[in-house]
Amino acid sequence: MGKKKRPGIIIWIWKMLFKLVLVLVLLSLCQVLFFGYFNPPVTVNMIWERLSFEIWETRYVKPVYVWQDIEEISPSLKRAVMASEDQRFLIHNGFDFQEIKIVIRDMVEKQTFRGASTITMQAARSLFLPASRNPLRKMAEAWYTLLMELFWDKKRILEIYLNTVDWGTGVVGAQAGARKYFSTDAGGLSRSQAALMAAVLPSPHKWSVTHPSAHVKDRQRRILRDMGKMRLP
């Protein structure tokens, strides 16, 4: 009797898994379509950090998050983050395979590792995913990246990125960062200020805007040099 029931149980499990995947796909699709037109009041990571504090009593700093339309953000900051994080942003479809090849080569030849995340990928995890490191999150990040590139234009992707990216402890987005570090709005940032903010983005909790290290200043100079090459969406 047990052997006869086993195939039925396996089929039931597969059906449940299929339904779960289908629900997740539809939910993610609805999220991307919705935020293509409406600005997010919070991000998933902001909710996750608050829940972690309530459940596990982890360290928590209430985030400062102030939405700023992309037209009200300094063109210098837009160019600076593209120069820093994703210089081929306007020509790739969410995944920069040229950069991925360089990363793989460096891993093999120099035994060094660095990320190859595009602005779209970073926007996907900033808005839709908690700050955890596991294979499932990377898969979800890739899926959201595909959806965002399919349904949003580059201008909207950059706008979401600039407003949801982590710019330090308790600092979410360009407006909060500009106010904290330079006491100005995101639209009032100078080229030098914008380049310095962009310089810390790979490690905003390790590198400082207010007390930049020699490495951060070197990055700032490189970003200033490359900003002129960046075309805005």
Strand content is under 5%
- The strand order across the widest sheet is 1-2
Order of helices and strands: HHEHHHHHEHHH
- Total number of distinct structural domains: 1
CATH top level label: Mainly Alpha
What is the share of helical residues? 55-70%
Mean pLDDT: 92
What name is given to the CATH topology?
Penicillin binding protein transpeptidase fold
Structural class: mainly alpha
- The multimeric state of the shown protein is single chain
Report the major sheet: 2 strands, parallel
Shape: globular
N- to C-terminal distance: 65 Å
Contiguous low-pLDDT stretches (5 residues minimum) are none
CATH H-level superfamily: Biosynthetic peptidoglycan transglycosylase-like
Counting DSSP H or I runs of 4 or more residues, the number of helices is 10
- Radius of gyration using CA atoms only: 20 Å
- Shape-level CATH architecture: Orthogonal Bundle
* Total beta strands: 2
Please give a structural write-up:
By secondary structure, the chain is an all-alpha fold. The protein has a single domain, classed as Biosynthetic peptidoglycan transglycosylase-like (Penicillin binding protein transpeptidase fold), CATH 1.10.3810. 61% of the residues lie in helices and 2% in strands. It contains 10 helices and 2 strands, in the order H-H-E-H-H-H-H-H-E-H-H-H. The protein has helices at 2-35, 44-56, 75-85, 97-109, 119-128, 135-151, 154-164, 174-182, 191-199, 214-227; strands at residues 64-65, 171-172. It has a two-stranded parallel ribbon. Helix 1 (2-35) packs across helix 6 (135-151) and helix 3 crosses helix 10. The chain is globular, with a radius of gyration of 20 Å.
